[in-house]
Design goal:
The chain is α/β, with parallel strands linked by helices. Helix content is about 40%, strand content about 15%. The termini are far apart.
């Protein structure tokens, strides 16, 4: 039996996102944060076996953009604790989509390819937590577990924390899933993988040489 997923994406309001993008002005950082999230969510919606996408954000205007793509949106339940916010969002996902398996995904994956996300989800061992590490091998970009076991540990050193709590690492070569973007060096790497349309349009106007 093929597992079907609801992907939960926590999204900061663009005004508060990507503070490590030094060298850019506030307008550019806000625009990139918005573009990253839109491209990430669009890739999720195009992924096989992803039946729903739930976005948690406190930005009402941004929520409407996600809803126009076909997402369900809810307010961010805890702006000071990402893992608490994810647990609350997944509780709502369980209410709305009880037959789906939840997967939490970072919102800053502008190169994400549906095929990479699909391969990662297809490789998950059913019945327990699994995760995909980031490109640096320290953090986490994807975490999934059955509703009753959903207990993510995103944050500093999350790869080690997820391993220590029994999570099974997705060991496939999935560069677009692992390439989250926090600074301009990350963005250059993401550009080499191929960017989603929203991000590509903005990056074309920047000097990233």
């Amino acid at each position: 039996m093929v597992t079907s997923y609801v992907v939960v994406v926590p999204v900061k309001p663009p005004a508060h996102g990507k503070s490590r993008m030094t060298g850019l002005d506030d307008r550019q950082r806000r625009a990139l944060a918005r573009a990253f999230a839109l491209d990430t969510v669009a890739a999720c919606l195009a992924t096989e076996h992803v039946d729903a996408v739930l976005v948690a954000t406190d930005d009402a205007a941004f929520s409407r953009e996600f809803e126009s793509l076909g997402c369900v949106t809810i307010p961010d339940g805890d702006t000071n604790d990402l893992n608490a916010a994810l647990r609350q969002a997944v509780a709502e996902a369980r209410r709305r989509f009880p037959d789906l398996t939840p997967a939490a995904l970072c919102a800053d994956l502008p190169s994400l390819r549906p095929a990479d996300l699909s391969r990662a989800l297809a490789s998950v061992v059913p019945g327990g937590p699994s995760f995909a590490p980031d490109a640096e091998g320290v953090g986490t970009t994807l975490y999934t577990a059955p509703y009753d076991e959903f207990d993510p540990e995103f944050g500093v050193g999350s790869r080690r924390a997820h391993r220590a709590s029994g999570g099974v690492e997705v060991g496939l070569d999935l560069p677009s899933l692992r390439r989250d973007v926090d600074d301009l060096d990350d963005l250059r790497d993401a550009r080499s993988l191929g960017l989603g349309p929203e991000t590509a349009a903005l990056v074309a106007e920047l000097d990233l040489t």
